[in-house]
């Protein structure tokens, strides 16, 4: 059985394994109180009930109030002053809109360029559309954009779409530099390709928070953070994707795309949307209440970033204490969900290690899953991804211990 698919079907019933493979929040990170309050308010909103605002098909572009409030949210959090509600399209989550964009803008056999490593489920969507997937190498500043990139990729392969996870990337945790973002947009205008930026981790930026001395409250630091690709909407070659799954709860299946007015109109005219209506009006009403009251921003700043920062530090420190630089290379991301671990011994096969790790009660995603072609899979065979969002600090420490025990068994059984 495909290990990737197997993981999603068995994880709910298995309560003993520490599931560091799973890229979602644990129950303590879901704001049940905010969701319950907003839902109660929605049911008791007599005006919206009389007007059937949240009880009928949504407008094709999505709930207009939510679109306006997303613009205000982005003005304050990303300092994007050029957006209007006409640049916002409400989606049923990133996976749904990514599939839609493939249908709208690509045809079987067209070339899509991805990072190496890249988000594994995006690769699945591209395969479903029978696209020609090529990948290009990355470093700590994201996708490498050099003369070879221009000649070998843009001029010879001629991709119609470039898909990136630019901020706290899944799986590797890197953040694309401001310079490379600017350069990629400039090249998209010259070589006429579409940039799809999957920015679901953009707001989970721990580096902007620091203790103010009392150990409880956090203040904004003046940290230069590469701007969201949403800021490039006017270029007409960029579509930036966001999701409330990583900020509130995955079950909402709600997100938004930032793009040019022309692209938003095109997405709204898509047959599936035009037939079934825009993204859930009911769910949009719940999220809109959380957003307009300022509750989402506070929850991100005071809960998500604070707790995830602790977890990231615990996981990184425990990995380096348990394994050390002798065995692994690992960067400490300043945001997002994931740690990317590379074993220094290229003979180590993380697919095989996973089988042993599961016997020890811990899981992870092996590196091969995040590549498409055989050569890239081989380069990532000694890598693995760990998620810090799914487990608390004590579980993360125990997970590292179990992973080290599995590694010791792997060395004895497989390597020697």
UniProtKB/TrEMBL annotation:
Membrane-crossing residue ranges in chain numbering: none
Ranges of residues in domain Aminotransferase class I/classII large: 18-402
InterPro entries: Aminotransferase_I/II_large, PyrdxlP-dep_Trfase, PyrdxlP-dep_Trfase_major, PyrdxlP-dep_Trfase_small
Pfam families recorded: Aminotran_1_2
Secretion signal, residue range per the UniProt entry: none
GO MF annotation: an example: pyridoxal phosphate binding
The name this protein goes by in its record: Aminotransferase class I/classII large domain-containing protein
Organism in which the protein naturally occurs: Adineta ricciae
């Amino acid at each position: 059985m495909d290990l990737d698919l197997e993981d999603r079907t068995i994880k709910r019933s298995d309560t003993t394994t520490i599931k560091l493979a799973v890229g979602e929040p644990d129950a303590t990170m879901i704001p049940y109180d905010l969701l319950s309050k907003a839902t109660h308010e929605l049911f008791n909103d007599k005006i919206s009930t009389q007007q059937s605002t949240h009880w009928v098909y949504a407008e094709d572009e999505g709930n207009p109030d939510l679109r306006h409030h997303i613009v205000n949210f982005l003005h304050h959090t990303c300092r994007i002053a050029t957006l209007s509600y006409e640049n916002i399209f409400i989606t049923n989550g990133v996976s749904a809109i990514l599939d839609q964009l493939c249908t709208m803008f690509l045809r079987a056999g067209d070339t899509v360029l991805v990072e190496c490593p890249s988000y594994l489920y995006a690769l699945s969507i591209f395969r479903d559309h029978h696209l020609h997937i090529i990948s290009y190498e990355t470093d700590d500043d994201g996708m490498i954009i050099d003369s070879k990139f221009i000649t070998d990729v843009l001029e010879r392969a001629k991709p119609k779409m470039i898909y990136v996870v630019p901020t706290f990337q899944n799986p590797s945790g890197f953040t694309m530099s401001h310079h490379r973002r600017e350069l990629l947009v400039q090249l998209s205008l010259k070589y006429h390709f579409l940039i799809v930026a999957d920015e679901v981790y953009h707001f989970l930026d721990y580096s902007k928070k620091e203790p103010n001395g009392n150990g409880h409250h956090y203040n904004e630091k003046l940290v230069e953070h590469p701007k969201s690709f949403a800021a490039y909407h006017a270029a007409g070659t960029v579509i930036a994707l966001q999701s409330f799954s990583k900020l509130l709860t995955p079950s909402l299946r709600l997100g938004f795309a930032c793009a040019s007015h022309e692209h938003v109109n095109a997405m709204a005219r898509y047959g599936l949307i035009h037939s079934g209506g825009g993204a859930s009006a009911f769910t949009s009403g719940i999220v809109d209440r959380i957003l307009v009251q300022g509750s989402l921003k506070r929850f991100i700043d005071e809960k998500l970033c604070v707790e995830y920062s602790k977890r990231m530090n615990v996981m990184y420190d425990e990995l380096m204490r348990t394994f050390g630089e002798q065995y692994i290379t690992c960067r400490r991301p300043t945001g997002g969900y994931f740690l990317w671990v590379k074993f220094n011994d290229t003979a180590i096969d993380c697919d095989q290690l996973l089988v042993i790790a599961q016997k020890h009660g811990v899981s992870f995603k092996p590196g091969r899953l995040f590549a498409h072609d055989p050569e890239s899979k081989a380069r990532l065979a000694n890598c693995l991804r760990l998620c810090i969002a799914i487990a608390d600090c004590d579980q993360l420490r125990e997970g590292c211990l179990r992973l080290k025990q599995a590694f010791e068994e792997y060395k004895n059984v497989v390597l020697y």
